[in-house]
Design brief:
Chain lengths: 478, 388
């Protein structure tokens, strides 16, 4: 009996050791790859004249899809901001997903909308559309508003938008996000400069807008959030986008294009079935299905990322709202892995099956579970007196210093590319947050992820709901 | 004098207690300890690097704050605000130019010289005529072209691109021997820049590289080239039908179709019609699009003839082309496609072309007789608020 126990503990310890080592090596490689990718991007950027694209009749058209649910607080300002994007041929498709507030009344009155007989082909099934509106004012000619029955998911709203989108590419964003004025120009560039592959999606860095100075829907001064929870998220976003996504992009293994801002190939998205209404992680789920479709149909595809921040979103500032968001994300990840389990280590799906999907499974989905078992095992060892405290503290110090190093490195990459914050004190302020992440923020992520997995396993109801945002229009300039 | 080496024995190695205790640790812990030091040192190094990067940026801004007004004043005084130049009463080559005023110690440094080049280019983009020519002369007389040519000879692609861009912006000719090979470079950015430069700078045959290009013309390159071609003054425009007929590079053919439309080269019609037999359906669709935009009516019957054998993208382009031609010869065909096709996009495009071509009475008749879906499509096509 003792022999079996010893064998189990040895096996567990060895597995966790290998697991941890591989993860650390992956982070180191991502650091290197992201540096190379950012360097490439910056070199190209020096000689890029976006004005050529802005004035060219050859620029491909883009449909901007913005779903909204009870966003009456800031909807007018956000639509106005979207209408001022710099791009020669684009349309804004705003999808009012059965809002119960006065969003629709505000839109009709502000943009002089009238219901029109709009013929469209519903290639993706959605909840019924009540009316489609166009503006009688030529100044808002680019705007189309869909008023539909609430589909209880962002996915349903975006699918309705995809059905009526006129152009071959669509940009998916949230109506409460603030986009850079040149976001469309920059997102479409990787599509146009690809030589042999078909770029099926492009993403860009997202940042937290809390504490930034905003004027009429435009970020005029970036600042790290004053709220600690929001600051943790800012730091996490920098690490995930500038270091993570750029690193994956370098080897064409991007796992996900964020729902906040992404440009997609409409044909592939429709053929892949559009966004999944049942999914809690609809953006990642669509990306996986698009990759799957491309592999099944021998399409040599690519997903590209750019390190430049083109979108700002309001991060949750209370643990309660943050918990809802992260639980939902974790549940979405579990759903995704379950639905596409066939892709895991399946060479038929190329890099997606052999690198991206296994990474997500092993180091995103399983990580909180491994951490939980680790803590339980630690408690067991403490109770049985099996802990060498000197070694334990050294190992903890190692993991801590390594994680702080990776985060600080991500902030450096960001600073090398773009000096977003005005003073170096703000950068130090953000870097110092990394020292606390391990102790304060990371445990929350683990707990909420496990909660999400529990909800997935038990099938507990959990709507995508409203994140109770403050609304940028309500903020004062500081 | 005490013997300080009295206790030292050469056989016994020096013992360092801390190192000894480190070596006694298990290998895993040893690695962890080493990484703690590496990580901690890296954190400090990264913080210093962040600070240094920002400091460098700050220094650069300060340098620019001093140099830019200095350059601006010099250029204003010696070039822009000169009466003879403003009145165009003197040719730039004959005007007196006080070069020594620009030969300041500040501009001897490499970085500052680059700021001067960038500023001159920026001014040159804003001024044409004698002022522009005088700015170009200044660039040449300060030997700044040599700096740009030097960059062109460097091995890094980005430095080469920079050199080419500077020479192009200052309208300095580059010999074919140097630039033509670069138009076919494997490095996309370099290839694109060289092609742009060649079109801008070559006085006789700016499109010569179309003949030798084996590398594809990416969509981004096409946008840049299109801009260069359509904005360069006094460019010798050839008949683009030449490459539509002979080029084996599909991207060049595709680009030429766009240029044919832009310059409305109706004479290219027969060459474009030949593409209707091309095996590549994407190129075929582009050719149909081109013919429609040219309103090349001679091909209408041929388009109707091939319609049923085409894939969807070509069929849609044929419907659009017929609508654009506005000959009204194919109204019956459009009506049939609108009424009987099972594909939504075909019905929609047929309806749009019908609205452009058919008499009002026919539209009213269709509105009365077609299904609910058909009526909706017609209303959609007729509504001026809906563009697409």
């Amino acid at each position: 009996m003792a022999g079996i126990g010893h064998w189990i503990t040895t096996f567990y310890e060895s597995t966790v050791f290998v697991y941890g080592t591989v993860l650390l090596v992956i982070y180191a490689l991502l650091g290197l790859f992201s540096y190379l990718a950012i360097r490439n991007f910056l070199r190209k950027e020096t000689y890029t004249n976006y004005f050529d694209l802005l004035t060219s009749p050859l620029s491909p058209g883009i449909s901007v899809l913005a779903p909204a649910y009870n966003e009456g607080l800031s909807i007018i300002m956000n639509v106005q901001s979207l209408l001022t994007l710099n791009y020669p041929t684009f349309e804004i498709v705003l999808i009012n997903d059965g809002s119960t507030d006065n969003s629709m009344e505000q839109l009709i009155s502000q943009f002089e909308l009238v219901a029109v007989d709009f013929a469209y082909n519903p290639k993706i099934k959605t909840q019924p559309i009540n009316h489609i509106y166009k503006s009688t004012n030529p100044a808002f000619g680019k705007l189309t508003v869909i008023d539909k029955v609430n589909g209880k998911s962002k996915a349903d709203a975006v699918n309705a938008g995809i059905n009526i989108a006129s152009f071959n590419y669509f940009v998916c964003t949230d109506v409460d996000c603030i986009l850079d004025k040149n976001a469309l120009l920059k997102l479409v560039k990787p599509v146009l400069e690809e030589q042999s592959k078909r770029v099926i999606a492009t993403g860009a860095t997202l940042r937290i807008a809390n504490s930034c100075e905003i004027d009429n829907g435009v970020i005029i001064r970036m600042k790290p959030p004053r709220n600690l929870l929001a600051r943790f998220q800012e730091m996490e976003y920098i690490r995930a986008f500038v270091l993570g996504k750029m690193g994956w992009s370098f080897i064409n293994c991007v796992p996900n294009v964020s729902g906040g801002l992404g440009l997609f190939d409409k044909e592939i998205a429709i053929k892949a079935g559009g966004y999944d209404q049942q999914s809690f992680g609809e953006d990642m789920e669509l990306m996986v299905r698009m990759c799957r479709y491309a592999c099944d149909n021998d399409i040599d595809y690519a997903i590209r990322y750019i390190p430049e921040t083109l979108c700002w979103t309001e991060g949750p500032v209370t643990v309660k709202i943050f918990k809802l968001q992260r639980t939902r994300w974790a549940r979405g990840l579990a759903q995704l892995m379950y639905a596409h389990f066939k892709m895991l280590f399946n060479p038929k799906y190329g890099r997606a099956g052999m690198i991206t999907f296994p990474y997500n499974f092993l180091f995103e989905l399983l990580a909180p579970i491994v951490e939980l078992t680790g803590i339980l095992y630690y408690i067991y060892l403490i109770l049985t007196g099996g802990v060498n405290y000197t070694f334990a503290i050294l190992l903890l110090a190692f993991v801590y210093s390594y994680s702080v190093m990776i985060t600080t490195m991500a902030i450096l990459w960001d600073q090398l590319a773009f000096r977003h914050y005005k003073s170096w004190r703000e950068v130090v302020y953000l870097c110092s947050t990394a020292l606390l992440e391990f102790l304060c923020y990371h445990p929350l992520i683990v707990i909420f992820s496990l909660r999400g997995y529990y909800y997935f396993l038990t099938g507990k109801k959990h709507s995508w709901g409203n994140m109770q945002r403050q609304g940028f229009g309500q903020k004062k300039k500081t | 004098m005490p013997d300080i080496f009295a206790d030292f024995s050469p056989e016994e190695p020096v013992r360092i207690p801390l190192l000894d205790s480190f070596l006694e640790l298990p290998v895993i812990i040893q690695i962890a300890v080493i990484f703690i030091f590496i990580s901690s040192a890296s954190i400090v190094f990264i913080q210093v690097r962040i600070w240094f990067t920002r400091y460098k940026g700050h220094r650069m801004q300060k340098r620019l704050a001093v140099l830019l007004p200095l350059i601006d004043n010099l250029i204003s005084e010696h070039i822009i605000l000169r009466n003879d130049v403003m009145n165009n009463s003197v040719h730039a080559d004959n005007a007196d130019l006080d070069i020594d005023a620009f030969r300041l110690r500040e501009f001897r440094k490499k970085g500052n010289k680059q700021i001067l080049i960038d500023r001159l280019i920026s001014y040159r983009k804003g001024f044409s005529g004698s002022t522009g020519a005088l700015l170009r002369r200044l660039y040449l007389e300060l030997d700044l072209d040599k700096v740009s040519f030097k960059k062109m000879k460097r091995s890094q692609w980005n430095t080469k691109v920079r050199g080419i861009r500077e020479l192009t912006d200052m309208d300095i000719s580059i010999s074919d021997v140097n630039i033509l090979p670069l138009t076919n470079s494997k490095r996309n950015e370099l290839r694109s820049e060289a092609r742009n430069a060649y079109i801008k700078l070559s006085k006789n045959e700016p499109f010569k590289f179309f003949d030798i290009s084996t590398e594809p013309l990416l969509k981004w390159d096409q946008i840049e080239l299109f801009k260069t071609i359509t904005t360069t003054e006094n460019i010798a425009l050839p008949s683009f039908a030449r490459w539509v007929t002979y080029s084996s590079n599909k991207s060049i053919v595709s680009f030429c179709l766009k240029l044919i439309v832009h310059y409305n080269q109706i004479d290219a019609g027969p060459a474009v019609v030949k593409l209707l037999d091309n095996k590549d359906h994407v190129l075929r669709a582009e050719a149909i699009n081109c013919l429609g935009k040219l309103k090349y009516e001679e091909v209408e019957q041929q388009l109707l003839h091939i319609y049923s054998n085409q894939p969807l993208n070509c069929q849609l382009e044929i419907l659009k082309a017929i609508g654009r031609m506005e000959t009204r010869h194919s109204v019956l065909f459009l009506k049939q496609e609108f009424l009987y096709s099972t594909d939504f996009d075909i019905r929609k495009n047929a309806a749009r072309s019908l609205v452009r071509n058919a008499p009002k009475a026919l539209i009213e008749e269709l509105m009365a007789s077609s299904s609910e879906d058909g009526q909706l499509i017609l209303k959609h096509s007729m509504n001026p608020l809906i563009k697409y």
